[in-house]
Amino acid sequence: MEAPDWWRDTVVYQIYPVSFKDTTGNGKGDLNGITSKLPYLKDLGVEVVWLSPVYASPMVDMGYDISNYREIYPDFGSMADWERMVEEAHRIGLKVVMDLVVNHTSDQHEWFQDAKNGGPKKDWYIWRRKNKEGKEPNNWGAIFGGSCWEWNDKLQEYYLHVFDVSQPDLNWENPVVREAVWDVMRFWLDKGCDGFRMDVINCISKTPGFPDAPVTDPQNPYQYGLIHRFNGPKVADHLLEMHEKVLRYYPNAFTVGEAPGVKSAEQALPLVKNGVPLQMLFHFEHMYIDHQPGKTCFNYKPWKLTELKDVLGKFMEFNQANGGWDSLYLENHDQPRIVSRWANDGLYRDVSSKMLAIFHATGRGTLFLYQGQEIGMANPTSWDFDELRDLEEIQYYEAVEAKNGDIQDALKQIQRIGRDNSRTPMQWNADVNAGFTSGTPWIKVNQDYKAWNVEAQSTSSGMSVLKFWKLVLRNRKEHPGLIRGKFEMVDYENENVYAYTRTDAIGQYLIVCL
Ligand code: NOJ
């Protein structure tokens, strides 16, 4: 029998389907490719597989813009392929978690097509008139650039989009919208999906009255940031309703909410106390330490190890004292490769990747590995404009270019922090295109693949990064104190060493990372 809180001890592996394994030669990964690699994941020691969105989508934001919640994106395969994948996963003891993207839909979704023409679903989205000066209702900037408001001539109103203009925000104040979301969740849970990663879930409630955001960039009419767009007063209520209406009927379902702008474990607690309404959140505070506050990720800020300790140590210590729980992640499809970002992807790439594996796997929380992290994948050494695929990077580059800014520096910032860095194809072997596809990959393959790939690291005689990760995951399983034991920081002021102990009834582990 599975423990009711099995999700604390588990290891989740995030798959970015379009870049994982292509079986058709169309240059994009697919569901059959995932199915073919399930034994690899089982052998690695992971237990849950989370798929970034595989639903019907125009792919403006790579599937985080869904046009039909109940259909599969045809280039990824069919619903029958999805069913086979889940059946096979379950047969070998893996769970499958889907991405739930319900803060917004694609503008191609039939709900929005109806809304934008003034149909009965108009109130499923968020509309406002011009302000007194005949402009947008407020100064909110969209995450990918420009205003959060887009004018609709027919309705003589703006609609709200916190992300891209093609991603209109759903109106969670409307109970009919919430019911529609609960239906989507039941649809997938009843088909055998084992839970959800919930995209920007703290964006489903905005500050009432939609006040202006603080001005951090006076040159720009639209202010970048999360303030007033995230963490509105109803986030907890909506999620409690989700729990009441859906999740409590699926007590084994896995739930993690993505929550940028949740700054402390105290703030997170009402959303995750003792696993209700959600089991854990992805906060971003450790990912933000290299950004200038109030600016986009492309604005670098140097940081110190004690800042990282302040963030992660405080989250873990608060959660253990108060019934909260952490998610442990260092990479995902929105972040660059961690060995390039925090360590050394040159001479010390192998040993740095192993140090990060220990650091990652011995924190207090549920472990999330991102595809390729287990072989120490790194950022490509450079990007040309033509090679970019991510709309955030492209919009940033074009904005710099439009201002006659330094475009070489823009490409440097993209190489350092851009999202395409972690979206390059999974490196399976030293064959053409790293064994990812026999066709033309939708995004370039990192040129280091001949030396850094799964096959080489499985068959090498030494202790490769891959073998090291397997060992670390096995150890974690065999020593539950590493997961649930008491967490205490050691030598807090040290700027060169990150150390802590994990203690349970069996013993104490001292972890020293440098
Ligand atoms: C967070 C997702 O991880 C990211 O890829 C996406 O662009 C935004 N949410 C909008 O859905």
UniProtKB/TrEMBL annotation:
Record flagged with keyword Hydrolase: yes
Domain Glycosyl hydrolase family 13 catalytic as annotated: residue spans: 14-423
Tree of life domain: Eukaryota
Gene Ontology biological process: maltose catabolic process; sucrose catabolic process
Keyword entries, A-Z: Glycosidase, Hydrolase, Maltose metabolism
One GO molecular-function entry: oligo-1,6-glucosidase activity
Family: Belongs to the glycosyl hydrolase 13 family.
Protein name: Glycosyl hydrolase family 13 catalytic domain-containing protein
Species: Trichoderma semiorbis
